Amino acid sequence: MVCLVDDLLREAIIRRATDLHFEPADDGLTVRARIDAELHAVEHVPPDLCGNVVARLKVLAGLLTYRTDIPQEGALTLDEGSPVAQDVRISTIPTIRGERVVLRFLARQPDILSLESLGLSDELLAALRGTASGGGGLILVTGPAGSGKTTTLYSLVHWLIGRPHAGCIVTVEDPVEYRVDGIAQIQVQPSRGLTYARVLRSVLRQDPETLLVGEIRDAETAHVAAEASLTGHLVLSTMHAGGAGEALLRLLEMGVPAYQITSGVRLIVMQRLLRRLCESCRRPTGDPEGPYAAAGCDRCLHTGYAGRIACGAIARMTPRLREVLLRHGDAAALSAAVDAEGPADLARDAERHVRDGWTTRPDVRRISG
Length: 369
Ligand SMILES: [Zn+2]
Description:
The protein is of the alpha/beta class. About 35% of the residues lie in helices and about 30% in strands. The protein contains 12 helices and 17 strands.
């Protein structure tokens, strides 16, 4: 049993899975790994072993093995103290077929990519570096779940570390997604009253220059982040929103005064992740507009893709956008104002990766819905 669980964990790490799901079914446990945003079945555990597998996972994370009727959350570190140590968060929940367990593998400093290697355009990177280089204000990265928002912000933090204007860098997150030396990282714990807003207010009394706020998802956090951005702090955060217009509208709806948004928000990045063609098996097409197609081999689990690559677009606070915000324009007016300065075109940026042979047109259609 110990070996089976250890092998599953190790295999998931080697495959660079972000999550590992243990899903109870009538005929046992289905184990699936999320690799490059997609779930792949990796193991099936027969019914007589299910209880032991779940119990082993709970022991590793110090959870109560005898309580199978309540949701539990915990954390563990695999290979603690070694260079390949891996932080894992675990959550269990009782279902009608037994306990469902999900493991999330958190990234560590060596996994942080340089800004240049994310796949974002030179123009976008110049805007990010330029905005982060002085004057404070809010930089928002928007996109759906799993679009690499936090990774981009961490790459930016990594670039900032040691630069004179970056000063003291503090992150407030739920969960802390990367461990980084040289900055203060704080885990939000709502069950202990440590909400985003409360932690942020305390952090602001500790003389920080740069703040990374994991996500703006409630009105109080939005208010504190906006106020901090107006008092000379550089605030980096993410929002779950389809585009810049939608993100600005949500800030308005959360009650952040329009004048704070127009003065505080300096750059909005809209980001998506495309799947990256497996270089071991990609098939030449002879079409210069899309030189490779997906095939499939053992290395890429026969998907044709291995790893991901980011594309994005930016929106800045322009006089027209400012004017629409101050008169509380609706979603359509905000989006029109964002597009007025040259459409923030994600699809066009994604096409760049198709032409360069990193991904395929079908994958671009997947993200553009
Ligand atoms: Zn392949």
